[in-house]
């Protein structure tokens, strides 16, 4: 009887330890970027500009599921349980198209490859060089983009921008970090929209 009681207590103890371990496992959270440009109150213009986003390129260290932040200029931190819900590059392409569509008041902003029979006025390529929260707590974004004319591929402009968000507190959540990333990426869309208006108006 005593042996059976010991075995029962051992099994119960193991079960309780297993339950305690499961209860303490970290929760995995998933995030996406969001468009932040205000939607235009006006309907798309009859001659709304047609824009194709050909590519958004990222540095290799950002091509991963984990959200990346910086511990220093030379040290990167990978969040094990704070993850992008999908492919970050594709998500950034989608959000850029949505932001530009709002900023240009055009329903003809698409990302390649696309199935629309669209003769673009302008094609856009973006190269992101840095996009993460730095050690000081603010999101930094450095990027360059190329605008080419839709009719003949002629280069119209190749500007660059270095942008930063409002510093976040030391204990800021990853949700706050991603919200700041969305806001800063929206600033980049505004810069690109300005250059499209200035250089892309000639179209085809």
> Radius of gyration from the CA trace?
24 Å
What kind of oligomer do you see?
single chain
What distance separates the N and C termini? 91 Å
Mean pLDDT: 86
Instruction: Please identify the top-level CATH class.
Output: Alpha Beta
Low-confidence stretches: 5-12, 15-19
The general outline is: elongated
Question: How much helix, percentage-wise, in residues?
Answer: 25-40%
Protein architecture, described:
With 204 residues, this protein is of the alpha/beta class. It has a single domain, classed as ABC-type transport auxiliary lipoprotein component (Rossmann fold, 3-Layer(aba) Sandwich). It is 31% helix and 28% strand. The protein contains 3 helices and 9 strands, in the order αββββαβββββα. The strands form 2 sheets. Strands 2, 5, 6, 7, 8 and 9 form a 6-stranded mixed beta sheet that branches. A hairpin with a 5-residue loop joins strand 3 and strand 4. Helix 2 crosses helix 3.
Give a concise summary.
The chain is an alpha/beta fold and 204 residues long. The chain has helices at residues 2-23, 88-103, 174-199, and strands at residues 29-31, 51-57, 66-70, 76-84, 109-111, 122-133, 139-149, 155-157, 160-164. Strands 2, 5, 6, 7, 8 and 9 form a 6-stranded mixed beta sheet that branches. It has a 3-stranded mixed beta sheet with strand order 1-4-3, with helices on one face.
